[in-house]
Amino acid sequence: MLRSVLMAMLVVWVCCPGLATAAELPPVVMDEVVVTATRQEEALARVPANVTVVTAEEIAQSAAETVPELLRSVAGVLVNDIAGNGRNYTVDLRGFGETASLNTLVLVDGRRINQADLSGVDWSLIPKDRVERIEIVRGGRGSVLYGDNAAGGVINIITKTGTREAVASGSLAAGSYSTYLGNLSASGAASALSIAVNGNYRSADGYRDNSDTLAKDAGLNLTYEVSDRLSLDVSGGYHKDDTSLPGALTESELDSGISRKASMHPDDYADVKDWYLQGGLKFFLTGNSYLEVAASKRKRESDFFSFFDAGEYTGNTEIDTRAVSPRLVVNEPLLGYETKVLLGYDYEKSDEDILNESIYFGFPSTASYELSKKNHGYFAHVDLDLTERLTVSGGGRKDRAKYRFKSLDAGSSESNSLDEDLYTLGASYRFTNNSSVYLSYAKSFRYPVLDEMFNFFDNTVNSGLDAQTSDDIELGLRHRFASGLAVGVNFFRVVTQDEIFYNPADFANENLDGDSIRQGVELTFEQSLFDILFSGSYTFRDTEIDGGMYDGKELPNVPQHQWTLGALKTFGDRVQLGLNGTYIGERRFISDFDNSHDEQEDYFYLTGKLAYLLDKGSMYLTVKNLLDQEYAEYGALNFMGEEGFYPSPGVNFLAGLTFSF
User: Fold this and answer.
1) Distance between CA atoms of residues 245 and 424, nearest Å
2) What is the DSSP annotation of 112-144?
3) Number of Cβ within a 10 Å radius of residue 24
4) N- or C-end of the chain: fewer Cβ atoms within 10 A?
């Protein structure tokens, strides 16, 4: 693998002669700053990882309605809209397939939103209109800085804050499947206090029967500059939605002539209420060094009903999560070298109350449980500028999780604990201000979530379930030529031990008895030609299980080939036309670990947006699935091992208006 990586880097060097003479070209200042990669502000060119930033301008130009749709065009990111109604998504970094939601850490302003149970990430919590920018850091480096769930990478959604001048804005839109969207936002400042508030409404009947959704959101960001050295901030959000779930259609049902829009689960639903509150302070000890503390509380309540082959399930869950994260950042010269040191501690505790009523194979049962997971993590990270061009970095983390499982009906209680030691090393060399090559290694991990360790069928704890660990290495290059062409290439290899998965052969959550290997390349480009901005990416992934009962098999729901292509053209000063296409290659069905079924078909998804720019806003029309392709983004084997499909929408439209005053 290393030989292949070095040869490929040599090919890039030879085929791009402008790179070899980059030091002789006029410098182009790369001043873009990211915060996610090191938990502090850092110039992108210094980061030894494949990082993408989705900017405010790109968000405004996009045809996307939701945050996951914004990520469709990002290299190496696989997005699945499961029900096709914009409510339930999986977002995958680095090919973790069916466990992507548990291996991709999602943050909102640095606060994790991954749940402590199998529900994973609820992407509807942050409406697109509230988002200022999104930072995507691929690979396992985030495990040292953030802890659990970051084996595939970290996605940090950064929300809008108050502006110095008072501004109000909003949007209205309507489209196919009785879709209606509304948003109102306001921001401003009074003396040392700045504020931003936001409210959103979304309703849609959905493409399929029983796929309607109704969502309401509100958000708040406050910042108070107490002095030149001390600032305080408070943010919060409220989300409520009622969503129907259409479920899968089996191959035999589709072959019998049932409509792709039909649902065999007319009563399935999931209703959610979710709110959070976060507060923090930042105190500068010197001009560049500071102490930062963040604390948060979140409460989420879900009611749901699900029908399946073996019976039905009605449930209610409440998860209460509290977290605190103090950290010290020291940006001072050390022994003559520019040095950044980060020391921190993360604490998070999640308590889950569960009440379920189920019927399995004709036998009804009712049970209630109290589950909890408590995390402690101590970490340190150092960035050191050995020269003006060479930066090396390294860090470590000591992490521990304690679990408690209590059955209120049986009056029994069990506990368990797991711990991991992690570390990362990296180096970035900047040829010029607009060119860098990097190499990094990281040891990452994820713990089991609560309902992977607890068996609801027999009220037992799987105390033998271990944490999974990964060895992650990547080598990459990013460069912007004098002509304006920007390119990026990244090679990665991830070897995971004891991967946690649901074994369909045993109907249980287990640790894989072989190593899972993921390796590949991520390529990106951006170039302006004839006043058209072109951008695109290609991702190649190769997966294999090495050893054990699934030796030599591919991992489910990981396409080998994926590419994107976008074009944006502005006519005059007012009219803007954008096209974005995404190709997803063939991939194994969810749960098909023995690769006994044919692969799920590939598809190409094309979106267009035509906008007329106003002095303070725009009018627009978006068309999704422009070619009216018949496809399914998501597919899984059911309880009986039959292929199940979640059909995706055909061509559909949305027209809207944005305004500000």
Assistant:
1) 41
2) E---SSTT---GGGS-GGGEEEEEEEESTTHHH
3) 9
4) C
Q: Which domain holds residue 431?
A: 2-660
Please tell me the distance from the alpha carbon of residue 434 to that of residue 489, in angstroms, as a whole number: 14
Q: What are phi and psi of 70, to 5 degrees?
A: -60, -30
Of the listed ranges 26-40, 117-131, 357-371, 625-639, the least confidently predicted one is 26-40
Which candidate, 588, 597, 485, places its Cα nearest to that of 543? 588
Are the C-beta atoms of 317 and 369 separated by less than 8 Å? no
By DSSP bridging, strand 454-455 and strand 486-497 are unpaired
Give the amino acid at 396: G
In CATH, what number is assigned to the domain containing residue 34?
Answer: 2.40.170.20
Q: Which two tokens stand for residue 473?
A: 């290495």
In this predicted structure, the answer to whether residue 402 has a pLDDT above a threshold of 80 is yes
When pLDDT is cut at 50, 70 and 90, the band that residue 447 belongs to is very high
Q: What is the DSSP string of 314-346?
A: EEEEEEEEEEEEEEEEEEEEETTEEEEEEEEEE
Q: What whole-number distance in Å separates Cα of residue 659 and Cα of residue 358?
A: 49
Can you give the pLDDT at residue 433?
75
For 300-313, what is the mean pLDDT? 88
451 or 71, which is more confident? 71
Sequence-separated (6 or more) residues with CB below 8 Å from residue 449: 102, 115, 116, 117, 118, 373
Average pLDDT, the chain: 91
Residues 437 and 142: beta-carbon distance below 8 Å: no
List, in sequence order, every residue forming a beta bridge with 277; answer none if it has no partner. Answer: 236, 297
pLDDT for residue 31 = 56
The residue-averaged pLDDT of 234-243 equals 96
- Residue 610 CB-density burial (10 A; 0-12 exposed, 13-18 middle, 19+ buried): middle
- CA torsion sign for 441, 158, 480, 29 is negative
- Mind giving me the DSSP string for 503-560? ETTTTEEEE-SSEEEEEEEEEEEEEEETTEEEEEEEEEEEEEEESSTTTTPPPTT--S
- The mean pLDDT of 111-116, rounded to a whole number, is 92
Name which of 297, 442, 449, 286 is nearest 379 in CA terms: 442
Q: Is the model more confident about 54 or about 456?
A: 54
Question: Confidence class of residue 458 from pLDDT cuts 50, 70 and 90?
Answer: low
| Residue 365: per-residue pLDDT | 84
**Res 459: pLDDT:** 66
pTM higher than 0.85: yes
Number of domains in the chain: 1
At 19, the pLDDT band (50, 70, 90 cuts) reads: very low
For residues 559 and 582, the answer to whether their CB atoms sit within 8 Å is no
Helix/strand/coil (H/E/C) assignment for every residue in 163-227: CCCCEEEEEEEEECCCEEEEEEEEEEEECCEEEEEEEEEEEECCCCCCCCEEEEEEEEEEEEECC
Q: Are strands 179-190 and 51-54 parallel, antiparallel or unpaired?
A: unpaired
- Strand order across the beta sheet in which 51-54 lies: 51-54, 131-138, 153-159, 104-108, 111-112
Which is more confidently placed, 107 or 335?
A: 107
CA trace torsion 26, 32, 37, 41 (10° rounding): 120
